[in-house]
């Protein structure tokens, strides 16, 4: 048979062999080697075989059993590893990805997906596989390892495959299942941690910041936002992410942790992407850091308000306040308490982000409130490098400690009483008909010190005075004459008259 390059294939005990060989093969194991001596009466007798075996010849056979099966055999399954957790098993019409080593019964390797470094991907139970493999894969868990032994009539039969597998060969597949889904599957969500307080859940059009670990079903990590030390930031429900993630991120709370399992037709499909193989089920373990909607405004929650709360903050007022600043997940960003001093601003002057200007409006001294500021009213998409992440929702716990009423809008200085009719002459101390910046500054300082005038609180004195002087110095020569000098209400009246 070695000379012919093919095994001798035959049923035993059915008269297809000489009587001696029929007896000699009984009880043999695969890979067993026997030396068989057969007398002529159990071989070809007194006639022999013309030209090959002489009459009354004793025959000697050196036999090596390669394969063995019975027409009543079925697929044999031996599971040698099964995961402790098995939420789902292979059913008819499922799509699976698995690795295998394929051998004959004598251990000869004929094929291996491991050698190709690519899984075998196929539907189960619908005729895409040999019948024995269709049967052998049913009921498997992801991560399970099986040895599936298939008789030839459930494999490639009498003809073999015309290449590596000869006719009538039993096949042995050592299989590990890596992935499993059904084309009818939707996403699967497992809630791992949901905050007790959840005032709002994400909706289509919201902008989320979240961390994630992305793995395949067998646990292989393909991506992680944690390794980049940066959240993944995106709109949800609008096609900015794969369809399964778009769906899986809806209805989450800030601080929630959930597992989202996404079948390939809602993930990266048959082609895969990067480290993600084709037709792979994806598992994302996500942690929602915060979310907001572009239409959101500032949210204000008053935690304490004094009984005497008649004077309310307004644009132009000078405020002193303490605050703790944090992200929505509770991460502390900054605190005036740790610095041991208040934060001081002129409300509405652009000294803080727009959301804080809004959040400090209509507040009285002693009041405490929580102000939640969406990023478009905070530090935007860029954030503050090393301090505030991009697109972060900010939470400020504020206590207003002091309020100095500001001046009417557009004024940097006002008189507390009647304005002198000889104001220019009073400012022009040397009576030369020209007022220099030094004269102007000394005069304004004197009015403030005496209580006759008031400067806008919270601004630098020199800058205010220089700005006032520049407004009067209309020709820009560094001197103000009587003709140039006008009070603000006089300017307004002249403009009105001209109109």
TrEMBL record:
Its EC number is 5.2.1.8. Keywords: Calcium, Endoplasmic reticulum, Glycoprotein, Isomerase, Metal-binding, Repeat, Rotamase, Signal. SUPFAM superfamilies: EF-hand, FKBP-like. InterPro entries: EF-hand-dom_pair, EF_Hand_1_Ca_BS, EF_hand_dom, FKBP-like_isomerase, PPIase_dom_sf, PPIase_FKBP_dom. Residues 415-450, 460-495 form the EF-hand domain. Residues 472-499 are annotated as: Disordered. The keyword Calcium applies. Gene3D superfamilies: 3.10.50.40, EF-hand. One of its GO terms (molecular function) is peptidyl-prolyl cis-trans isomerase activity. One of its GO terms (cellular component) is endoplasmic reticulum. It is found in: Endoplasmic reticulum. PPIases accelerate the folding of proteins during protein synthesis. This is peptidylprolyl isomerase.
